[in-house]
Amino acid sequence: MKDKMKILVGTDGSEHSKKALIEAINVAKKFSGFIKVITVYKQGMDEEAKKVLKEAEQYLKKEKIGHSLSSILGSNPSRALITVANHENFDLIVVGSRGLGHAASFLLGSVSRKVVSKSHCDVLVIKK
Fold it and tell me: CA-CA distance, 37 to 21, in Å (whole number)?
């Protein structure tokens, strides 16, 4: 691993994604990392996306981690994570193994599986 890491975290506000953020923070502390948190949301869900990112920012500020936040209007979180990771040269993507569930999730389907199979950088999937 590198001395300075760029870490991308996908979040939907679920417990698994919160745990993914906490683990990303731990990695960032160890490797002087920078974290970018993204959430992908559907039309009309922008207020919920803002809440999810605000909560993530509270964790990051508390731990004094350099960070940025981004909400992306769309329906394919795995594609969004992979595209951002490639375009911005991230070293690591961190995701939870499960999202909020089919009806309420911003991260629909098996995002972690798709990210692992299609990403060009390392992926850390948080299960518990």
Answer: 8
List the 92-96 sheet strands across, edge first. Answer: 66-73, 34-41, 6-10, 92-96, 122-126
Whether 70 and 99 have beta carbons less than 8 Å apart is answered as: no
Low-confidence ranges of the chain (pLDDT < 50): 100, 102-109
pLDDT in tens, 70-89: 999 998 999 999 999 999 99
- With respect to residue 29, please indicate whether it lies within any of the assigned structural domains: yes
Place of tokens 């590198």: 2
Q: Which residues of 49-78 are buried (b: 16+ CB within 10 A; e: fewer)?
A: beebbeebeebbeeeebebebebbeeebbb
The CATH number of the domain where 111 resides is what? Answer: 3.40.50.620
Parent domain of 97: 6-126
Q: Which residues contact 28 (CB under 8 A, 6 or more apart)?
A: 5, 7, 34, 35, 65, 66
Domain count, the chain: 1
Q: Does residue 1 form part of some domain? A: no
